[in-house]
Write a structure and sequence with these properties.
The complex is a heterodimer. By secondary structure, chain A is of the alpha/beta class. In chain A, the strands form three sheets. A six-stranded mixed beta sheet of chain A has the order 6-7-8-3-9-10, with helices on both faces. A four-stranded antiparallel beta sheet of chain A has the order 2-1-4-5, covered by helices on one side. In chain A, helix 4 runs antiparallel to helix 5. The longest helix of chain A has 16 residues. Chain B is mainly alpha-helical. The radius of gyration of chain B is 20 Å and the shape is elongated. Chain B starts with a helix and ends in a 7-residue tail after the last helix. The chains are: A alpha/beta, B mainly alpha. Chains A and B meet through helix 2 of A and helix 1 and helix 6 of B.
């Protein structure tokens, strides 16, 4: 069964860019990644799914129900964590979470014990005022708020900002556990690495359009690496132009800079023959992938 | 009902302050009644010295000024003004605070319809205003009893004092409408004060110009104490005018709020 299905979903905001003809299907039990640079339309898509904004045209269904007609009913089974969390400042964390829980039909006792369990796991002091919490701790309140009713669909909009690596790890473990219990997850991010860690499939959005939906495994195979070499003397261009998979090659007096996609062995052989002073190999950021791969 | 109770909790403190302002204010003012009426002729002379236009603008009528209703009525204009600010703050703030505080995402991604959100908030604001007025009318009646020796009609007194609530309803509804039209309200007072004082000034002009038509425009001119005392009721022309304004404002608020896009916290 498709948990989320959008057909030609389109949203214009006057002049500014929205989304155009977004077709997405997220199947039950998937962890579906949604990546794209900032402003590409990730949040717009998610906010339309949640009924926060209204589509200009096209349609979207969640659990087979139209989001514009059955919003409250659908939201009963959704947990949403926005990229920036803002809550009523003069409330304590526990008050906010109880208030959040009071919207759902679920047994209040079950919700209360779930709040406690999650707070323990994430190491959050529930008695503090939200105003006094750090950004990362506010985020934890957001995570608990999104998961306390054990939703069937978890929607995360760039959720990891502000979490330290340890917490991020626990958070990802938590998401995997929820997924095992049957929850479907839509995970939006502009960090490729995050999505690769967690997701089965991924949709790539750029300038409001979905440009590719891929299995994460095939995306990884296609991944480019960025090589940054510092050399003692200027390297002749011909050393690299002969190698297949090299692009965006820039050579200056003391550096070589290029993107590479192919067998690592082939490129290291060439590099080994150079007089290097330093070397850096990194994952290209998403922007670079878009520029060189998804043109 | 969870939103309703939560909103009451949010506004508990500020409403208690408004209650205190009304109660202490009216008690303090009424306590002057004895001193004021002890030397009628001297006060009368002082007031006669004012130009008639100024007296009219201030709402002073010499023939009724020394009765409890006249004295109370003189203050009433300012009670309306204070009440209007309270109501306008509530109406403008209660939806807008979710946008300016960026909590709208939280609230509206819960399993709750916008109709229910608006209804809960409307009910909460009405409750808060009603509670304020119960305190105010009680304090006013109590102090009137304490500081006068003559008897007066309980019904008329409550009717006169309740005009504050009716004026508040006008500004509450208007506040709601403003809050869904203006994209982002950072300071509630920046909207409520100019609007309330705008209507108030229009009301002052009426006394100077003497135009009847202008009375329909501003709720500060809907109620005339002499009329209420004579007829034992409000002037229906204006009550209906206000009802129309309130219904139009709330209906428009509902229709706009239902369709409104909640933008990401930017």
């Amino acid at each position: 069964m498709n948990i989320i299905e959008t057909k030609k979903l389109t949203k214009y905001y006057g002049k500014s860019l929205g989304i155009i003809d977004v077709d997405l299907t997220v199947e039950e039990g998937e962890i579906f990644g949604f990546i794209g640079p900032n402003g590409a339309g990730k949040s717009t898509t998610i906010r339309t799914l949640l009924g926060l904004i209204h589509p200009t045209s096209g349609s979207a269904t969640i659990f087979g129900k139209d989001v514009t007609k059955f919003g409250p009913e659908i939201n009963e089974e959704i947990g949403y964590l926005p990229s920036e969390v803002f809550y009523y400042d003069d409330m304590r964390a526990i008050d906010l979470l109880r208030y959040s829980g009071s919207f759902y039909k679920k047994d209040p006792k079950a919700i209360a014990s779930r709040i406690k369990g999650l707070a323990n796991l994430l190491d959050l002091d529930l008695n503090k005022k939200i105003d006094d919490l750090s950004y990362g701790n506010k985020k934890k309140v957001g995570i608990i708020q999104g998961l306390l009713h054990e939703p069937k669909l978890i929607i995360l909009d760039e959720p990891t900002g502000g979490l330290d690596p340890l917490m991020q790890q626990r958070f990802f473990d938590l998401l995997r556990a929820e997924n095992k219990k049957g929850a479907t997850i839509l995970f939006s991010s502009h960090i490729l690495n995050e999505v690769q860690k967690l997701c089965n499939r991924v949709a790539i959005i750029k300038d409001g359009r979905i440009i590719k939906v891929e299995k994460i495994s095939s995306l990884a195979e296609n991944t480019h690496k960025r090589f940054k070499l510092e050399t003692a003397v200027k390297v002749d261009k011909s050393r690299f132009t002969g190698l297949k998979g090299v692009s965006d090659l820039v050579i200056t007096d003391k550096s070589v800079n290029f993107l590479y996609r192919g067998r690592i062995n082939d490129v290291t052989k060439i590099i080994a023959s150079l007089n290097l002073t330093n070397m850096l190999v990194e994952e290209p950021d998403l922007e670079e992938i878009f520029m060189h791969y998804y043109k | 009902m969870n939103i309703y109770f939560q909103e009451l909790r949010f506004y508990r403190r500020v409403t208690l302050i408004w209650m205190a302002v009304f109660a202490v204010g009216i008690f303090g003012y009424m306590s002057l009644f004895t001193a004021f009426t002890s030397d009628v002729s001297a006060t009368l002379k002082l007031l006669e010295g004012f130009p008639p236009v100024v007296r009219a603008a201030l709402g002073i009528r010499l023939e009724t000024f020394f009765t409890i209703f006249g004295f109370f009525g003189y203050m009433l204009t300012y009670l309306w003004l204070v009440g209007a600010i309270q109501a306008m703050n509530l109406g403008t703030g209660i939806l807008a605070k979710e946008i300016s505080g960026k909590t709208a995402d939280f609230l509206l991604s819960k399993p709750v319809s916008r109709t229910k959100v608006l209804a809960s908030k409307l009910l909460a604001t009405l409750t808060l205003l009603l509670a304020t007025n119960i305190v105010f009318v009680s304090a006013a009646y109590f102090s009137a009893r304490v500081f006068t020796t003559t008897t007066f009609s309980f019904r008329s007194f409550v009717l006169v004092a309740s005009t504050v609530f009716v004026v508040q309803l006008f500004f509450l509804a208007l506040g709601y409408l403003i809050s869904v039209i203006v994209p982002k309200i950072k300071s509630v007072l920046a909207f409520s004060l100019p609007v309330v004082f705008g209507f108030f000034i229009v009301g002052l002009l009426d006394s100077v110009i003497g135009s009847e038509a202008i009375r329909y425009v501003t709720p500060f001119k809907y109620f005339d104490i002499q009329y209420i005392l004579d007829h034992g009721s409000y002037d229906w022309k204006y009550v209906i005018t206000e009802a129309v304004v309130v219904i139009v404002c709330i209906t428009a608020t509902y229709l706009i709020y239902l369709r409104k896009d909640i933008q990401a916290g930017a």
